[in-house]
Every structure is written in structure tokens, then in C-alpha cells.
Amino acid sequence: MEPYYAGWLSLVPPVLAIALALVSKEVVSSLLVGIMAGTFIYSMGMGLNPIAGTVGTAFDLMVGSADLYIILFVCMLGGLVFVISMAGGSKAYGKWAATKIKSKRLSLLATAMLGIVIFIDDYFNCLTVGTVMKPLTDKYKVSRAKLAYIIDCTAAPVCIIAPISSWAAAVGSNLEATGYYQNGFEVFLSTIPLNLYALLSIAMIFIIILTGLDYGPMVDAEAMAARGYLGAVKSENEMLSESSDRGTVADMLLPIVLLIFFAITAMLHTGGFFVPGGESYMNLGSAFGSCETSKSLVWGGFGALAAALIMFVPRKLMTFRQFMNGVTEGFKTMIPACCILFLAWTIGSVCRDILQTPEFVSDCLAKASFPIFLLPAIVFVIAAFLSFSTGTAWGTFSILIPIIAPVAYALAPQLLTVSLSATLAGSVFGDNCSPISDTTILSSAGTECNHIDHVTTQLPYAMTVAGCCFVGYITAGLSGSNVILTLSVSFACLIIAIKFLHSYDLRKTPGKAGK
């Protein structure tokens, strides 16, 4: 499909969709409106029939942008969670975990640590951690919004600074494609110390967990959770009411462990780790970098479901018919998330592929004039805006790295590395909090949290981190990329901001903390 350079009009679809979603609290129709607005702009610009062109282009993009492997994996995970609950595994795990982890704070710390450990892929992280930790955090009345926030902030922000991950390979390949670097992986490693959004996001979840200094809509979500309303889209109690009383902790943990094992093994297989003589033979970093993640996740889901069948049916925790019915019901619970994910991919395709939003933003950068020390901060803002509008980190840094590298090299070579760090940091911002980001959607799905509740409670935290990053990148520009000074200023700014916003929230609404 031939692209059309729409200029500032290319910003209309994402801005319209996000604004409607936040105002109406209805994601699907908002995304549809954004998609149709984009394809209408495209049809008018290309001289197509206003009706046939708009609808036909939308359908073509929907078909072409969907990753059916991810859709299938999401559904399979829903089926796995459902049959584990039917077998009594979730109930048994909740009782067991309560004897080991005896406070709300420890349950949140355990969630954050598990999220950091599963750093290989963000999709995998979002869906797996929520599945494992929901029974425990529910017991201590943690709102699903806070659970989704912690999981979301240990997905993309962790993956973007993990040397062995699908993200590391993607960034490395884009760096090598610029022609300025022979070893993209080494350059990627050099960007980690100043990838402020990733580092500050991870720091913030631990600060919030340890101090309880919530603010914004998250305070209300936690207050309602304390009164028994967790904000779950589908009541866990409804699922557990039909569960077996003979389930064990192993019925919960073993299928999840096997899911992880099968998925990682499949990633290594599709990445060529086991192929003698290949480039990735016995090379973990290379194998994870070149693996087919989506397909590998499906193999992992299939293996876990097969293991659950072998575990549950012979022990008569359920019949084969009940198992298959449970898988089907689990698939159904994921349909809303799949619809949102499908439409988010489509509106991202509208912006990237036919209206050329990234090219418009890049042109704005090229035409702008500003003091050199502001380069990292401006790059961060552009990457953050672009990723928030399109909902994709990979798409953002794939487009910006080839632009930022030569610009920074020509204008300020001493700021080249920090500018690349700012590019990656801004890219992760949108992936972390945009309503149309796939990881934001999957975090909602994995925790069974209302998607708009997750977005509205997380956004103030993400904006706080982004503001501190902006200050940090100005510091980096002024100091010539001094890592220690930049990190010190950024972390100090974050702590001050959290304390101030928490205090301001209490003053604005007296007695709010005691709800």
C-alpha cells in the first residue's frame, strides 16, 4: 500500500483515539474511530472514494497488521489459567503463599522481583507474572490497577536494559544498520547507564512499594481494594467457586514453570541455538536476538496446556470434557483483550505505514534549531511522543536511531551515546503507558484489570518519571554525559517529585489517605 505524507494530520488518529478512550472509558470504539479517521485522511489524500477507500483501507490494515501468534498465545494463556483454577491450583497456591509471604508489601516486592527475573520478552512477562501473582496479591487486597502497574514497569523497562533479550538484539541490529557501528551490541550496552526512563521506572516501583507514597487515581484504586473491590474485570471468586478442593501448589506452579521452560526452549530453537555451524549455535545472546518470539510463545502455551491435561485428567480433578470446556471458557475471557490488541496494532499501522507519522516528527526535528546541550532532552521528548502516539517502542527506535545517530554525530559527538539512550528511553515511555501499546494492553489482560483503569492510574506515575528524565537529560547535555551526575540528579528529582505529589494529593483531598 503506497504511503501518503499527511503532515500534522498524521497525528489526528492517535490523538483522537487516546482522547476518546480517556474521556469515554471505552477503548474499542475509540480505537475504531481513530482508525477510520486515519484511513479517511489517507483516502482523501490519495484521491480514493471517501467511503470505499476509508473502509477498504481499514480492512486491509487490520488483516495485515495482526500477529496471530500473539493472539493465539494470549488465548492459550487464558485457557491455561482457567483450567488451573478449575483444578484448585490457584486456591492451593494462594493458601500456601500466604504462609510464606505475610504482608501486602512483601507480595508486591515478590511481584516486582519476579517481573525483573523474566526479562527475556515483555509479552511473556506481562502475561506470566500476572497469572502467578494474582492469587497472592488478591489475598492482601492489592488493587488490580497497582498489580498491572508493577507488571507493566517490569516488562519493557527491564527488557530494554537486559543484555539477553529480544529487545537487545533489535536495538543492536538497528544500530549496526546506521553504518556508524560494527558491533551494535556493545553500543547497546553503553546506552544502559543513561537509559533513564527504564532505570527510574524500576526505581519508582520499589519506592512506591516500600514507602506507600501513592498519588493520583492509584490512591482511590487502593482504597477501594482495601474495602474489597479489587477492580478485576472478571471475578476470580467466580472461577474458584467451581474449582476442585484436591488441588495442590504444584497444580499452579508446575504448568507455569513448564510454560516458561517450553517457551524459552522454543526461542532458542527458532533462534538457531541448537543448529551446528549456524551463527547462533550455542550463543544465547544471538539466539534470543534472532528467535521467532511469537511462534515460540505459542509452542510454550501448547506445551503447558498439554502438561496440564496430563496432570489434571488422570488424577480425576476434572474430566477430559471439563478440561476442554475450561480451555474454551478461558479463551473467551481473553476476547476483549485480543480485540483491543488487534485494533491497537491497526491504528499503529495507520500511523506508521500509510500516514507517515514518524517521518513528520523526524522532519520537525531536522528543521528545529536549539542549543546543543538540549539535544538529549529533545530527542527524549520526540521519542516519547512518537511512541505514545503509535504505541510501539520497536517501531519508534527503529525509525529514530538512523536519524539521531548522524545528527548527534555531526552536531555533538560527545552527546552521541546519551542521545541514543534518550531515544531508547523515550521509546519505552510510550510502550509502557500508551493506551494503544500492546504491553499496556497485555498487562491489563494478564491481571484482569480494566484497561482504562490501568492507563489512568499508571499515567501520572509514568509522567512523573518522564519529567525527571527530561531534567536528567538536560543535566547530561550540560555535563557532557557525566553518568554519575546525571543519575544523581535524576534519582533525587524522582524522590522529591514523589514526596511532593503525595503531599499535594493529601492537601488537595483531605482525608484521602484514610479512605
From TrEMBL:
It is a multi-pass membrane protein. The chain crosses the membrane at residues 6-23, 30-48, 68-87, 108-132, 147-175, 187-210, 252-275, 296-314, 334-352, 364-386, 392-412, 459-478, 484-502. Residues 163-477 form the Na+/H+ antiporter NhaC-like C-terminal domain. Signal peptide: none annotated. This is Transporter, NhaC family. Keywords: Cell membrane, Membrane, Transmembrane, Transmembrane helix. It is found in: Cell membrane. One of its GO terms (cellular component) is plasma membrane. InterPro entries: Na/H_Antiport_NhaC-like_C.
